[in-house]
Structures are given as C-alpha cells and as structure tokens.
Design brief:
The protein has six helices and five strands. The protein has a five-stranded mixed β-sheet. The chain is an alpha/beta fold. The protein has helices at residues 2-5, 20-33, 40-52, 111-121, 124-131, 136-143; strands at 6-14, 57-59, 61-63, 77-88, 95-103.
C-alpha cells in the first residue's frame, strides 16, 4: 500500500533547520508542490500543534505530522523527510529526525497505509536505516520493500 502513496519526489533529506515550524513547512512542501494538499495545510498543522501540542510525535526520532482532511487535503499521499540534525517539537519532547507527513483525504482510506507504516516505524533497525540513508532512492527502497 505504501508504494501507492509514497513517490520519490516526496522524499527529502535536510541537514539543519531552525525550529519545529520550519520542519513542518519542509515536511509538507512536497505535498503542496504535488497538489496533494493546499498551502494552508502547513499552517493548519502548526496551529493544531500550538493548540494541542505535538500530538504527532510518536516515539524517539519519529513524527507523523498531519491535520484533518478538511484542513486542506486534496488527495491522500505520504511524504518522508529525514533530518540530519534532530528537531524538538516541545521542550521536554523527543528529538525527531524522521517526519512522515500524512495527507488523508478521509477518515478511513489511509488506514491500510498506517498499518504498513506502523510495522516500519516499530522496527528500530529499519528506522535507523532510514535515518542514515544517503539518498532519497535508498529511503524509497526501504519503505517499499
């Protein structure tokens, strides 16, 4: 299922960002460019984070930023961003280096992809391979194996 939702052009590696807001902006940008989400989806995630906290930071190293379908999703899709220098989304939160941005067009159609993603992110060895991958092609290969 992931191979249907993750395209090479939606994968990126970044050296260093100033803060978590810049991380969200970078992580969502490929989905904006690909017309999977509206530009406002970036600000909606940031507003949700300010209101509810970083609800999408799942574990050490891993965040899955997303907002509700009505907050700017046009078509379901996934983007992956690897940060060489980790970012914290809250003062006492985990350091994050892997952002898997989810654009869900409704409340159900992405559930199969979430099941696949949960298998990937629950395996520390696979997460380490993704975080230390040298190319976007290598990251795509890990997700779609």
């Amino acid at each position: 299922m992931i191979e249907n939702l993750l395209k090479l052009e939606n994968i990126q590696i970044s050296e260093k960002l100033e803060n978590w807001e810049k991380a969200i902006e970078l992580a969502v940008r490929p989905l904006v460019i690909g017309n999977y989400v509206e530009e406002r989806y970036i600000q909606e995630i940031i507003k949700n984070t300010e209101k509810f906290g970083p609800y999408y930071v799942l574990a050490p190293e891993i965040a899955m930023p997303h907002a509700r379908p009505e907050q700017g999703v046009l078509e379901k899709q996934i983007a992956v961003t690897v940060l060489r220098t980790p970012v914290k989304f809250s003062e006492d939160g985990y350091q994050v280096r892997l952002l898997i941005t989810l654009a869900a067009s409704d409340n159900e159609s992405h559930l199969e992809a979430l099941k696949d993603l949960s298998q990937i992110i629950s395996d520390e060895e696979i997460v380490e391979k993704i975080i230390h991958a040298n190319t976007t092609e290598e990251i795509l290969g890990i997700f779609c194996q």
